[in-house]
Each structure stands twice: as C-alpha cells, then as structure tokens.
Amino acid sequence: MSVLTIAMPKGRIFEEAAALLVKAGYEIPPDLDDSRKLIIDVPAENMRFILAKPMDVTTYVEHGVADVGIAGKDVMLEEERDVYEVLDLKISHCYLAVAGLPGTEMQDVAPKIATKYPGIASRYFREQGEQVEIVKLNGSIELAPMIGLSDRIVDIVSTGRTLKENGLVEFERIVDITSRLIVNPVSYRLKDEQIDELVDRLAQVVEEA
Ligand SMILES: Nc1ncnc2c1ncn2[C@@H]1O[C@H](COP(=O)(O)OP(=O)(O)OP(=O)(O)O)[C@@H](O)[C@H]1O
Ligand SMILES: O=P(O)(O)OC[C@H]1O[C@H](OP(=O)(O)OP(=O)(O)O)[C@H](O)[C@@H]1O
C-alpha cells in the first residue's frame, strides 16, 4: 500500500485536527508540530504529514503533492480549487463578518474594505450591489478602520474579543466557517481504499462529538 500524504495546517487548526485523527484511532504523535520539521513520516500508519500554512493547504492538495488535507472553509471559499471537499470536520468554528466602527456609514463612493479575503469580500459586496475598493492586508485587520485605512473590514470572528477590545462592531455575518477534509481527485481514484477508510473513521468521530 502506498503512503498517504496529508497536508496539515500549522497554527490554530492543528491541535484540533490532530486530536481528531488520534480519536479516529490513528497512532500519530499529537505533538507533530512541536519541532521545526515540516515533513513527518509515520510509518506505522503508512502516512506522511506535511505541515503547511493554512492558506496553502489547498495548493498542496490541488497539485497532488498531498493526497488529502485539512483546510478552513474560508480558504476554500477564497480561491476556487480543483479538490473534493469530502467531510465537514466541525472544528475551528468561526465566521466571516463585516465589521467597523459603531455609528459609521460607509462612504458613498467606492468605500474601502480591508481584508485578508479579497475574493470573498468582493463577491459579497458585488452580490449586495455595492461597488467597493478592496484593501488587501495580511493580518491585524481590525486596525484598518481604527486608523482610517478603511470604512469596513471583512474578517474572521470567533469569540468576538478582538472586535470588542478594539471598539469595533459587527454589521453583517457573511458565512459560518469550520475546517474541512479535502481530497485530490486523482488520489481519490488511485488510493480510494485508504482515503475512504480515513473519511469513514473521521466521519464517525465527528458524528460522535
Ligand atoms: N479566531 C479564530 N478562531 C477559530 N478559527 C480561526 C480563527 N481565525 C482563523 N481560524 C481558522 O483557522 C485558519 C487560520 O489559522 P491561523 O490563524 O493559525 O493561520 P493564519 O491566519 O495563517 O495565521 P498566521 O498568519 O498568524 O500564521 C483559518 O483558515 C480559519 O479557518
Ligand atoms: O473573535 P476572536 O476570537 O477575537 O478572533 C478573531 C481574530 O482572530 C483572527 O486573527 P489572528 O489571531 O489569526 O491574527 P491576525 O490575522 O491578526 O494575524 C481574526 O483575523 C481576528 O482578528
């Protein structure tokens, strides 16, 4: 049987995702991301883990260098990729929202929207019939309206703490986000048994949670 390569997101999704695999009975070290190693082989399970930036997981899976991966729905919605989304893992719950300073209106002409998600934000405002200018940032998005860079932000909200501590309010909720198991279409044909088993075992754990 060939090795199954799994693209795991480093960062906040990692722990919950690794815990799911352990619950599903895979004998993997739960502290896979404790070292600086980016490729970790687990011969006992015939698995290889690659540790990627969350936004890049879909790229590895689309190109087939990883057979499967775990990615936030936000990442899936931001860029359309040729991958199968096979299971909602129901971890890393959060949502995307439009937020800004309380009591403010968006300026009439080309209001500015700061976001890490230009694709999702431009689609959302287009569907609302609003013409906006997207300002792409890579983090600390909440800063933008506070210092006059943008009228609104489109960003992830989880506990709401970041908005609150920066005096911002949510105006609209765009979409709920959880992490998903994704599969490369060619891998699904070539390694169907291994992948089906992974999907079934994870699905059972998700159902029981
Ligand atoms: N506050 C949050 N609570 C829960 N899940 C979140 C939150 N923020 C992001 N996520 C989920 O986790 C993923 C991003 O994880 P993480 O924040 O570790 O990576 P990142 O945004 O690339 O961060 P960094 O650039 O700081 O490494 C998102 O794609 C989303 O699905
Ligand atoms: O509702 P909360 O629980 O406060 O979580 C939301 C915050 O978490 C994410 O930021 P992250 O920590 O990834 O930092 P960065 O995007 O600013 O780098 C997101 O972009 C929000 O800023």
TrEMBL record:
Family matches, as PROSITE patterns: ATP_P_PHORIBOSYLTR
Catalysed reactions listed for this entry: 1-(5-phospho-beta-D-ribosyl)-ATP + diphosphate = 5-phospho-alpha-D-ribose 1-diphosphate + ATP
InterPro entries, per the entry: ATP_PRibTrfase_cat, ATP_PRibTrfase_CS, ATP_PRibTrfase_HisG, ATP_PRibTrfase_HisG_short
Domain ATP phosphoribosyltransferase catalytic: 53-203
Pathway: Amino-acid biosynthesis; L-histidine biosynthesis; L-histidine from 5-phospho-alpha-D-ribose 1-diphosphate: step 1/9
Listed GO MF terms: ATP phosphoribosyltransferase activity
Major localization class: cytoplasm
UniProt keyword list: Amino-acid biosynthesis, ATP-binding, Cytoplasm, Glycosyltransferase, Histidine biosynthesis, Nucleotide-binding, Transferase
Localization (cell): Cytoplasm
Keyword Flavoprotein: no
EC number(s) from the headed UniProt entry: 2.4.2.17
Listed Pfam families: HisG (PF01634)
Top-level EC class: transferase
Annotated function: Catalyzes the condensation of ATP and 5-phosphoribose 1-diphosphate to form N'-(5'-phosphoribosyl)-ATP (PR-ATP). Has a crucial role in the pathway because the rate of histidine biosynthesis seems to be controlled primarily by regulation of HisG enzymatic activity.
Entry similarity comment: Belongs to the ATP phosphoribosyltransferase family. Short subfamily.
Assembly and binders: Heteromultimer composed of HisG and HisZ subunits.
UniProt domain comment: Lacks the C-terminal regulatory region which is replaced by HisZ.
PANTHER family: ATP PHOSPHORIBOSYLTRANSFERASE, ATP PHOSPHORIBOSYLTRANSFERASE ATP-PRTASE
Identification of the protein by name: ATP phosphoribosyltransferase
Taxonomic lineage from the root: Bacteria, Bacillati, Bacillota, Bacilli, Bacillales
Gene: hisG
